[in-house]
Amino acid sequence: MALSEEKKQYISKILRYVNIGIGVLCLVFVLQLLLSFSGDEEHAVSSGQRVKVDIASAEIVMRSNEAELEEQKKAEEEAAKNEQTAEDEFVGNNGDQPKLAIVVVNVGMNKVVSEAALRLPSVVGISLSPYIFNADSWVAKISESNHELYLDLPMETDDYPRSDVGPYALLSHVGKIKNMFRLKSTLSTTDKYLGVITSVDEKVTKTLQAIVPIIDELRKQKTVFIYNQTPTNSFIHQEARSVGLSTINKYHVIDKELSKEAIDKELASILEEIESGEGDVLVLARATALGVNRLQNWLQELKAKKIYLSKISDLVEKN
After folding, report:
1. Whole-angstrom Cα distance, residue 103 to residue 125?
2. Which residues of the chain have a pLDDT value below 50?
3. Residue 43's pLDDT is what?
4. Of 49, 66, 143, 251, which sees the most CB atoms within 10 A?
5. Cα 299–252–99 angle (5° rounding)?
6. How many Å separate Cα 246 from the centre of its chain?
7. Residue 306 phi/psi, 5° resolution?
């Protein structure tokens, strides 16, 4: 179908406008391209200047960091020196007086109290409970704080079974196989321990048939056996000597009664014993908030009197 002359003119007019629009767009594109080339040169110059500034800034920051690290190193060395000086205030020779050592037992069961015990001077011994779940973590903490490490050795107590001593407790009325299983379960807590410490008021050491196999196994493990000697278990001393088991056969429990007055009275009695020169003394405290707190106060009293602490291993009777 032929277009009318009027429609042809209309289409021709539209095409002219399209061509003009395309031309304008091309011109704009060329101008933008030229401007970008010019901008790249300026950008290159600007970037080069910024790189120089950045390098200079980095050098200043590096020098500042090095200075800070050096200051931090000096501060840490000074802190370590002060800490060692503070430690040294508790360690020394009491001359003619007996040796004095301290151990905190049942560590690891209460996180807050146990961490407070680890902040005591490193000459204080730490004894882990075999019932803790994260033994490796506690062993690492004890190692880092330079405390001697021991293990609690749960035993049947005088008021058993009213008193729960746990599934690893050695019992006076069971056979050797059961007790050996329980003993090895306790000793498997870690291999970093120096010795084992019996439960307070236990009665297994008073039973010859029960304790002799335990003594023999501890001797095989080349560990130290720490217990309280009484008239009814005095045979242990000779038995240990006969098999070559190293022992400490006496400790003073400060918190049988868990009250400030009772603990302070016990500590005062121990201090009198030390000053009278009756013999070496091992002080035992359970990991309780009150017990650790009273120990901290007592340590300051000892320092004022110039009574020094020894490590537990210094009290060991080697056989």
Report:
1. 4
2. 1, 37-45, 47, 50-51, 53, 61, 79-85
3. 46
4. 251
5. 60
6. 28
7. 60, 40
Going 152 to 157 to 163 to 165, the CA torsion angle's sign is positive
Vertex 253 angle, CA 169 and 122, to 5°: 95
Answer for the pair 196, 189: CB distance below 8 angstroms, yes or no: no
SS3 category, 124 = coil
Report the pLDDT value the prediction gives residue 33, as an integer from 0 to 100. 59
Q: Pull the structure tokens for residue 216.
A: 């023999």
The per-residue DSSP string of 21-64 comes to HHHHHHHHHHHHHHHHHHHHHHHHHHHHHHHHHHHHHHHHHHHH
Residue 273 and residue 250 in contact, taking contact as beta carbons nearer than 8 Å? no
Residues for the chain: how many in total? 319
- Give the Cα separation of 251 and 5 in Å (integer): 126
Q: Which residue has the tokens 């091992």?
A: 282
Record the tokens describing residue 294, joined without a space: 């009273």
Q: Rounded to the nearest 5°, which phi and psi values hold at 100? A: -130, 125
Least Cα distance to 171 among 184, 189, 195, 154 occurs for 154
Neighbouring C-beta atoms of residue 319, cutoff 10 Å = 14
202: which 2 tokens? 């236990």
Report the alpha-carbon distance of residue 146 to residue 94 in Å, rounded: 22
Quick one: tokens of 15?
A: 């095409």
What is the structure's pLDDT at 31?
Answer: 56
**Quick one: which of 224, 174, 177, 181 has its CA closest to 204?**
174
CA 17 to each of CA 8, 20, 44: distance values in angstroms, whole numbers, following the listed order: 15, 5, 40
Core vs surface per residue 210-226: b (16+ CB within 10 A) or e: bbebbbebbbebebbbb
Token duo for residue 100? 């004095």
